[in-house]
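Bench notes, afternoon.
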Amino acid sequence: MKSIVIRQPNELVIEERVLPEPAAGEVRVKVQLAGICGSDSHIYRGHNPFAKYPRVIGHEFFGTIDAVGAGVTNKTVGQRVCVDPVISCGRCYPCSVGKPNVCTSLVVIGVHRDGGFSEYAVVPAKNAWQVPDGRVGQACGNGGTLHDRRQRDRAGDAEPSRTWR
């Protein structure tokens, strides 16, 4: 598969990479749309102290699930999804008070692990939010907005919907 890789600050290449397989609890997304953001520019220029290189950037992306890892029961091949880039532990103090974006074990897709500037991306199944067929992918191109929406869902008493509206 082709990926846009930042090998080190100010060095961007298109690289052929091995198609990743989803591990337990993960899904593989065939990327159809990826947005570019100022955060991506900071990583490219070496201005993000948390970025690890080489890195496939892109934390705002949409696509279709084409493979599921072991133990994933609520996602299916063919589902259209937006990806929430914030991977948090769910157990630390910040997570317990609804602030997973400052989790003590924070991992951000496209910063700490490879993101959506690739033909395929592997992400935790819990971070892949179903997009109804009537919605266009551009509606979920902003990962930050998606993450904020997810946090508002979780702040209520009801179990959050796993479908992005």
